[in-house]
Amino acid sequence: MPLFTIINPVCGHKSGSSFFDTHVFPRLNDQKITVDYNLRTSSPDDAPNFIREYFTTNRLDHNPPTEITIILGSGDGTLHEIIEAIRPYTTEYHNLLIRFVLIPCGTANALYFSLFPDTIDAAVDTSNPSKRLRSLEEFLAGKEAKTLSLAVTTVSNHNESKTSINTAAVVTSTALHACILRDSESLRDEHPGVERFKVAAQKNSTVWYYSQVKLHPCQSSGKVEIYNPDSNAFSPLESHGGSKEVIMEGPFVYFTATTNVDRLESTFRVLPLMRSLPPPSPTCDIAVVRPLRCSAMKQDTEHFRTEFAAQTWKVLHGAYEDGAHVRYRYEANGEITNEGNGQNVVEYVRCGGWEWIPMEDDPNAHILCCDGEIVSIEQGGTASCAVDFKSKFYIYA
Ligand SMILES: Nc1ncnc2c1ncn2[C@@H]1O[C@H](COP(=O)(O)OP(=O)(O)OP(=O)(O)O)[C@@H](O)[C@H]1O
């Protein structure tokens, strides 16, 4: 059962290497745990290349790998790259299991702070290292690791040929969130912290995204479900003609799906029900905002797009207020309120998968984000996302 340590020394505030030397390796030494492979990345492709080399060497040696534990010091992006590198081998090696111990060293650390929400002050206060060692302590205590649900998105072109398959443990998104991630990367040096996401959000705040979405039912209920703030429960989302599939028409402003996390930054709880009303079996939770559901938005014009940007900001601020946005409703004049029985501002959907079919003449609707990786959907193409019910990935949490 090989044990790897992989450290991305440049992510977040670039403190991963020293944190491991000061806190992680000494804890392992205390417990007399030997690390079999230790990698500090020196370039963006190092972690996935290292994984592929490991599997290639094992194949040549006729030594099929079975259970691997990876103590990972990084953000969500490096985790994503490692999962993508390993996943193709899970079909070849049926007994392969991957267990992660996650040490949050990145910018957002969405997975870590979702799994350990009582440690979120560690995002800004680094004076208490034990808050970043919780996953390690679970591992050292011999606890059982939890399943990491994966969302697998197949992107196809206009001929329905696959152009890519992307796996996400944290977030799969289109619309505003995907465009924020597309634009925030170029701001990394100027803004090493989460401010870069806000700067990029401002740039995209008046864009509407034209697409059709097909939602597929949850495995547990056989239905697509929607959150009802009155009952604080999910109920079936009605479809037309008896089909189990539900169709949503655009334009969209927000379309962000997760399988494990309730937040995308320590305090940005955009899908809070993933933890407060957890699904009985792996699902996609999706936060959807469609501007034309607001009665004050009469049509798609520059004027209404600018007006709706204020509503979008309110929704995003609500996510920072412990996920309050999922209870927001429209008043008759289109204002957002916490009360009353107007239309939900956010359609909080729970489903087994979804298909995003962008309108050909809308380039912004052709951007997909899988755990921070930006994928372009070709003109006439689609992105189809489904929960992987046979995940071989686990995390100590
Ligand atoms: N030595 C390196 N030099 C430059 N880039 C690297 C190196 N090692 C890894 N990377 C790249 O750094 C990128 C960012 O890493 P990661 O996502 O883990 O951190 P983050 O973006 O700071 O945090 P988060 O994803 O939690 O917001 C990854 O895409 C990875 O490929």
UniProtKB/TrEMBL annotation:
InterPro entries according to UniProt: ATP-NAD_kinase_N (IPR017438), Diacylglycerol_kinase_cat_dom (IPR001206), Lipid_Phosphate_FormReg (IPR050187), NAD/diacylglycerol_kinase_sf (IPR016064)
Gene3D superfamilies: 2.60.200.40, Probable inorganic polyphosphate/atp-NAD kinase, domain 1
MF terms (GO), sorted A to Z: lipid kinase activity
Domain of life: Eukaryota
Domain DAGKc residues, every copy: 1-159
GO biological process: sphingosine biosynthetic process
GO cellular component, one term: membrane
Protein name: DAGKc domain-containing protein
